[in-house]
Amino acid sequence: MLFVTDEQERVQKKTFVNWINSHLSKRIPPMRIDDLIYDLRDGTKLLALLEVLSGEKLVSKAKGQPSSTFHAHRGPHL
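That's the Nesprin-1 sequence above. Prediction below.
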């Protein structure tokens, strides 16, 4: 069984936040997160991260609709 100490968890979260911020800084306008859970809770910054990583626009800003048939079929179950 693997046990992660509080210090290890803190370091892992900080490392992941830094990794996310390194990618979010590439978008225009740049974004950043400070708290892993709080800042990703509504999905906006998570979606921005996925767009940066994939190089694709995933949601139409004008309509808020999925930009592909795949996303439309998957719906809110993602």
